[in-house]
């Protein structure tokens, strides 16, 4: 398929074998590809090909209010794609003209193709987002939604659309098995329909599938709109939805004079409030459990983001806390948990396209090491994966039209800071470290032994 002209002039390419390994003693970021609109998940195929999800910049179609934009409208278009970069070739866009939603005219806060992952046989699976009331997605779900009317407090915030105002984006809010050669999509699970009929977290009826992991015969999806983690059989035969609990904080954590839109926060006794979790990152740990990181909803407090561990019993337990705006998680080859922070400060009052974030490594003993600190090049970072070369790859500048890029983290760690989280988290980390040699990352490529050997000498 023909590439879109708006990105051809700015897409660049570089791999370790070509560019070499820097010898500096602090982490540096090497740009791999850029010119991506609202860049999301990054992953590697079984042959080492790099893929980047590009939700796109929406278009001039129908619009809906979105909680992701504090209820500013996001509008439909066909501007999404999947960016593909082979280990020895040039980047190209596939699955072009894919359905997309974003703010207009800025093109910020895109929802569309969110993530791609591969199973152990090399089959590809595609996740699409939505970021709004699922009854507005298409005529079919609109009619379905009319059978399940929203409570009065919801109607003002997420009014169901009318048939001539539906977004006409039926490909969004779904999990697919995808043929990357032909573009054929086979739907495995429809999050929009499930949210309307089940509403797992019991709150507002919103869906925004955000992050995908594959392990064995199951897909694990984190839905930031529905505040839910899903386990779905890859053949579509079974599914399980687990609600992520709200975050209880003190009113004193709110910025002075903050005006709160009605219905966003729950007032609790003792000067407490409950804010939505907004889970955004997930990964299967070395122990087989699902780990889920949260961004936290409005008013986006600092140092309040949690990481949950969901074991075989299906109960989400707080594993670690004290983070800010987590967007993705992964485990490295040594069993260390890597935590990507979209920003280190609250997004309120800031430019969401340029919020300095960081990358934190959590060791088995609970020690937190800042691999990339705020101000060292990560801004509004949104996705993370480990490459076949053993290096860390991050989607950076994940908000905005054509601003996104993938960077590789090179160099050595400069500073280690003990930052214990919850007691439960520290105990759980110890057990993870004991089984790290048997662990699985978000995706499981066959590693190139020569590249790994080179990486281990740095």
Automatic annotation (TrEMBL):
Q: Does the keyword RNA-binding apply?
A: no
Q: Which residues form the signal peptide?
A: 1-26
Highest taxon listed in the record's lineage:
Bacteria
Alphabetic keyword roster:
Signal
Classification via InterPro entries: 6-blade_b-propeller_TolB-like, Ice-binding_C, ScyD/ScyE-like
Question: Does this entry carry the keyword Signal?
Answer: yes
| Protein's name according to its UniProt entry | ScyD/ScyE family protein
């Amino acid at each position: 398929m023909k590439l879109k002209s708006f990105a051809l002039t700015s897409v660049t390419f570089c791999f370790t074998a070509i560019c070499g390994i820097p010898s500096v003693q602090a982490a540096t970021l090497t740009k791999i590809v850029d010119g991506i609109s609202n860049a999301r998940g990054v992953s590697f195929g079984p042959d080492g090909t790099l893929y980047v999800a590009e939700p796109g910049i929406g278009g001039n179609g129908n619009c809906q209010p979105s909680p992701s934009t504090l209820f500013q409208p996001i509008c439909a278009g066909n501007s999404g794609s999947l960016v593909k970069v082979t280990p020895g070739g040039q980047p190209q866009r596939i699955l072009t003209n894919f359905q997309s939603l974003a703010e207009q005219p800025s093109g910020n806060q895109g929802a569309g193709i969110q993530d791609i992952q591969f199973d152990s046989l090399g089959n590809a699976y595609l996740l699409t987002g939505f970021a709004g009331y699922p009854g507005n997605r298409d005529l079919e779900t609109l009619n379905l939604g009319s059978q399940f009317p929203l409570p009065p407090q919801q109607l003002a915030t997420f009014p169901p659309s009318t048939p001539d105002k539906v977004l006409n984006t039926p490909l969004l809010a779904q999990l697919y098995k995808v043929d990357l050669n032909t573009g054929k999509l086979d739907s495995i699970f429809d999050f929009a329909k499930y949210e309307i009929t089940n509403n797992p977290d019991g709150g507002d009826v919103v869906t925004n599938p955000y992050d995908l992991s594959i392990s064995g015969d199951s897909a694990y999806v984190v839905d930031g709109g529905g505040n839910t983690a899903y386990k779905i059989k890859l053949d579509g035969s079974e599914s399980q939805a687990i609600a992520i609990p709200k975050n209880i904080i003190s009113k004193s954590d709110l910025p002075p004079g903050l005006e709160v839109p009605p219905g966003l926060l729950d007032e609790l006794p003792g000067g407490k409030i409950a804010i939505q979790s907004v889970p955004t990152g997930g990964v299967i740990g070395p122990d087989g459990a699902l780990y889920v990181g949260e961004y936290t909803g409005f008013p986006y407090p600092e140092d309040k983001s949690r990481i949950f561990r969901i074991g075989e019993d299906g109960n989400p337990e707080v594993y670690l806390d004290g983070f800010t705006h987590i967007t993705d998680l992964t485990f490295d080859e040594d069993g260390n948990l890597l935590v990507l922070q979209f920003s280190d400060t609250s997004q309120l009052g800031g430019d969401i396209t340029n919020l300095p974030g960081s990358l934190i490594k959590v060791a088995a003993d609970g020690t937190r090491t800042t691999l990339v600190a705020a101000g060292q090049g990560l801004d509004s970072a949104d996705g993370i994966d480990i490459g076949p070369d053993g290096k860390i790859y991050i989607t950076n500048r994940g908000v905005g039209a054509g601003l996104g890029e993938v960077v590789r983290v090179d160099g050595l760690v400069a500073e280690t800071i003990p930052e214990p989280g919850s007691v439960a988290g520290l105990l759980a980390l110890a057990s993870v470290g004991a089984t790290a040699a048997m662990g699985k990352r978000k995706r499981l490529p066959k590693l190139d032994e020569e590249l790994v050997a080179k990486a281990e000498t740095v």
